[in-house]
Write a structure and sequence with these properties.
There is one protein chain. This protein is mainly β. The protein has one domain. It has 1 helix and 5 strands. The chain has one helix spanning about 55-65; strands at about 15-20, 25-30, 50, 65-70, 80-85. The strands form 2 sheets. The chain has a 3-stranded antiparallel beta sheet, with no helix packed on it. Strands 4-5 form a two-stranded antiparallel ribbon. The N and C termini lie far apart (about 35 Å).
């Protein structure tokens, strides 16, 4: 394996660094703390699921599981999941 030493950061992929596998969100990322300023509000704890291309798709999938995301008001990372009163049918019809 070789590394390009001209890369500004060897810790991230397009400004994001892998943060593991979450039990509900699956693979998640965080903004790279080396390249980007850490969010002042959530202190870098916000997670960004790798599988979703839009927020609507994420909230729709979580709603079907009876969950709702709590998002950081500054960076929009997922900082918690809370139970919803009811589950709902899929409504995301966005073409990706």
């Amino acid at each position: 394996m070789s590394f390009n030493l001209a890369d500004p950061c060897l810790w991230c992929i397009d400004g994001n660094t892998p943060a593991g596998i979450h039990g509900v969100l699956n693979e998640v990322y965080r903004p790279c703390p080396v390249c980007l300023i850490v969010c002042d509000l959530c202190e870098g704890e916000g997670l960004f699921p790798a599988e979703y291309t839009c927020l609507h798709c994420l909230t729709d999938r979580l709603a079907r599981l009876g969950l709702a995301p709590v998002l950081c008001a500054h960076c929009l990372g997922v900082i918690d999941l809370i139970p919803r009163d009811t589950t709902q049918e899929a409504t995301c019809d966005v073409e990706h």
